[in-house]
Design a protein that fits this description.
One of its GO terms (molecular function) is nitronate monooxygenase activity. The chain is of the alpha/beta class and 321 residues long. The protein is 44% helix and 15% strand. It folds into two domains: 3-202 and 291-319, Aldolase class I (TIM Barrel, Alpha-Beta Barrel); 205-282, no CATH class. Helix 2 (25-33) packs parallel to helix 3 and helix 3 (47-60) runs parallel beside helix 4. It is globular, with a radius of gyration of 19 Å.
């Protein structure tokens, strides 16, 4: 058993991203029941809604699950208190300084994992006392780091910078990609896009079907003056590109964003005015259709095992030559 499965008490080192408007109790419990680690996405939940999802997730699975909490969350104190009161044992933090809450969480017996986009932030997370790190590359959907480092470059860099258990994220959709990440030094993987488009995801079916028709180059990393976010092509993406092209200020961009755009796009399926967040790897999924979590997990594990066998056979043949 490796460090990731041991740390979380799971069968497979596969973590589902805690995505806004996608990662409710149905998705998180389904991933946990299938042997991975499901995460609730607190970033799009009011505190009382988060409490409800924690309780429903616990009722739906006897396996480990966690909560992803963006540290910029406006009611962060209330959310952290709910997590402690409800006995959540695993918290992934992101979008902020891990020093602010890691100590408090660990005092409450909670395993803490922090999401980073660079080796520099990985070292800061380790110094803050986190138990593991997610290194998320530029390919990922949703909010990204300013560094724009690809997963292929980020994982070995972070692996060289820290001894903590390392989880790779960004652009991972297949068993072959999982093998590649492990070869680079990651001990587990976190998948967002693949799980966002499953049957159990709370995202709108309209959003899911739209994303499954996206092709290579149909996502862009925008809003770099605020917090970089990867958006799928559409009216809102074009509006952001137009605003940035004429030098929109941070305040003007905030006004453009301040209409519940992500909820409208992802949760309500408003393809005209909504913010459509999804990763680059969505272009690899157009033949998959909307699958169940069970189907996705089975495919990931089967393809990973097949990739391992193929690689071993290729190495053996090369040695024989």
């Amino acid at each position: 058993m490796d460090r990731i499965t041991s740390l979380f008490g799971i069968k497979y080192p596969i973590i589902q991203g805690g995505m806004v408007w996608c990662s409710g109790w149905r998705l998180a419990s389904a991933v946990s029941n299938a042997g991975g680690l499901g995460l609730l996405g607190a970033g799009s939940m009011h505190p009382d809604t988060l409490r409800e999802h924690i309780q429903k997730c616990r009722a739906a699975t006897h396996h480990s699950f966690g909560v992803n909490i963006p540290l910029m969350y406006p009611q962060i104190e209330e959310v952290m208190q709910i997590v402690a009161e409800e006995g959540v044992r695993i918290v992934f933090t992101s979008a902020g300084n891990p020093k602010s809450w890691t100590g408090w969480l660990k005092e409450h017996g909670i395993t803490v994992v922090h999401v980073v986009s660079s080796s520099r932030f990985a070292m800061k997370a380790e110094a803050a006392g986190v138990d593991a790190i997610v290194a998320e590359g530029f390919e990922a959907g949703g909010h990204n780091g300013h560094e724009e480092t690809t997963t292929l470059c980020l994982i070995p860099s972070v692996r060289a910078a820290t001894t903590l258990p390392l989880i790779a994220a960004g652009g991972i959709t297949s068993g072959e990609a999982i093998l590649a990440m492990r070869a680079l030094g990651a001990e587990g993987v976190q998948l967002g896009t693949r799980f966002a488009l499953t049957e159990e995801s709370s995202a709108s079916r309209v959003f899911k079907e739209y994303c499954l028709h996206l092709k290579e180059g149909d996502t862009r990393l925008l809003l770099k003056k605020l917090s970089p976010v990867r958006l799928a092509r559409g009216n809102f993406q074009r509006a952001v590109e137009a605003a940035e092209a004429v030098g929109a200020t941070e305040e003007e961009l905030r006004i453009l964003l301040s209409r519940g755009r992500a909820k409208r796009g992802i949760f309500e399926g408003d393809l005209e005015e909504g913010e459509l967040e999804i990763g680059q790897a969505v272009a690899l999924l157009h033949e998959k259709g909307i699958q169940t979590v069970g189907e996705v997990m089975h495919e990931l594990i089967t393809d990973y095992q097949r990739a391992c066998e193929t690689l071993a056979a290729n190495i053996y043949e090369r040695l024989e030559i």
